């Protein structure tokens, strides 16, 4: 597959071309003082955050990823551990020292509970500048449910929520009938919101149509047959 940015950012990453292009352009435009990434893996998205931010906090449960490909990224503070434990401490420190975070990427634990926990913990941040939060895999049914489970109206700094800022993909990376990718987006502003908040799902219909053709739907409906299938397979 042709990749327009392959030379500038050589570390392989787990995103579609549309997502890569969007992330590069957006982070370049924001030029963040500080970025946070939850979910580093090989360092694909981290190389972009590191390139355009002054400093990055990168969180991953697996230490090998930091050691494998990210050694050269000098402005990155690696925090190893479960984001459910690491993020609350990090946000507490950032709030206490009034650090100017401007961009956050959530791409770690992809379960519904995991996504909800990361959003809940990240949204405890006090915004001293506008903060853009990208939620990767908003097109995946479990992640989407996690994103939708949070009550954004209770946070006065949230001004905008869009689940389909970038639309996701079907059969992504050859994964049979699986729905992955997509960027959801949350905008935090230092001033409190005056108007009521609307959580937008620009491609909700596409999501629903795709879901009924997806493996996620079949698993939900026919998952109870799995033990029987295993018996017959032996
Ligand atoms: C999809 S990968 C991230 C891909 C990366 N952002 C990129 O675009 O190249 C997800 C990463 O989240 C990490 N992860 C999963 N659960 C986590 C958790 N509870 N806390 C921290 N990291 C976690 C995994 O180890 C994995 O490296």
What does this structure look like?
The protein is an alpha/beta fold. The protein contains nine helices and ten strands. The strands form two sheets. The protein has an eight-stranded mixed β-sheet with strand order 3-2-1-4-5-9-6-10, with helices on both faces. Strands 7-8 form a two-stranded antiparallel ribbon. Helix 5 (112-122) links the parallel strand 4 and strand 5. It is globular. S-adenosylmethionine (SAM) is lined by residues 13-15, 39-42, 44-45, 59-62, 65, 82-83, 107-109, 114. It comes from Winogradskyella alexanderae. InterPro entries: SAM-dependent_MTases_sf (IPR029063). It holds the Pfam family Methyltransf_24. Keywords: Methyltransferase, Transferase.
Domain count, please report it: 1
| CATH architectural name | 3-Layer(aba) Sandwich
| Shape verdict | globular
Number of helices: 9
**Strand residue percentage:** 15-25%
* Order of strands, widest sheet: 3-2-1-4-5-9-6-10
CATH class: Alpha Beta
Overall SS class: alpha/beta
Ends: how far apart? 39 Å
Mean pLDDT: 92
> Largest sheet at a glance?
8 strands, mixed
The molecules bound to the chains, other than polymers, are:
S-adenosylmethionine
* CATH-defined fold name: Rossmann fold
Radius of gyration: 18 Å
The ordered string of helix (H) and strand (E) elements is: HEHEHEHEHEHEEEEEHHH
The unreliable regions are: none
What is the β-strand count?
10
Helix content: 25-40%
CATH homology superfamily: Vaccinia Virus protein VP39
């Amino acid at each position: 597959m042709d990749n327009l940015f392959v030379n500038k950012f050589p570390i392989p990453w787990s995103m579609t071309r549309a997502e890569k292009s969007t992330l590069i352009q957006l982070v370049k435009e924001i030029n963040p003082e500080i970025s946070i990434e939850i979910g580093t893996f090989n360092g694909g998205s981290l190389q972009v955050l590191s390139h355009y931010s002054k400093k990055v906090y990168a969180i991953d449960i697996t230490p090998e990823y930091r050691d494998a490909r990210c050694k050269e990224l000098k402005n990155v503070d690696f925090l190893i551990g479960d984001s459910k434990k690491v993020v609350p401490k990090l946000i507490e420190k950032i709030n206490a020292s009034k650090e100017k975070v401007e961009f956050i990427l959530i791409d770690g634990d992809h379960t519904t509970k995991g996504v909800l926990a990361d959003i809940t913990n990240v949204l405890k941040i006090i915004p001293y500048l506008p903060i853009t939060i990208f939620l990767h895999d908003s097109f995946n049914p479990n992640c989407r449910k996690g994103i939708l489970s949070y009550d954004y109206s209770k946070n006065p700094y949230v001004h905008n929520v869009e689940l389909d800022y970038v639309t996701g993909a079907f059969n992504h990376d050859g994964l049979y009938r699986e729905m992955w990718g997509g960027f959801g987006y949350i905008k935090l502003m230092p001033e409190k919101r005056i108007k009521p908040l609307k959580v937008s799902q620009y491609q909700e219909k596409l999501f629903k149509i795709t879901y009924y053709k997806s493996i996620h739907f079949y698993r939900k409906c026919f998952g109870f047959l799995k033990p029987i299938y295993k018996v017959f397979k032996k």
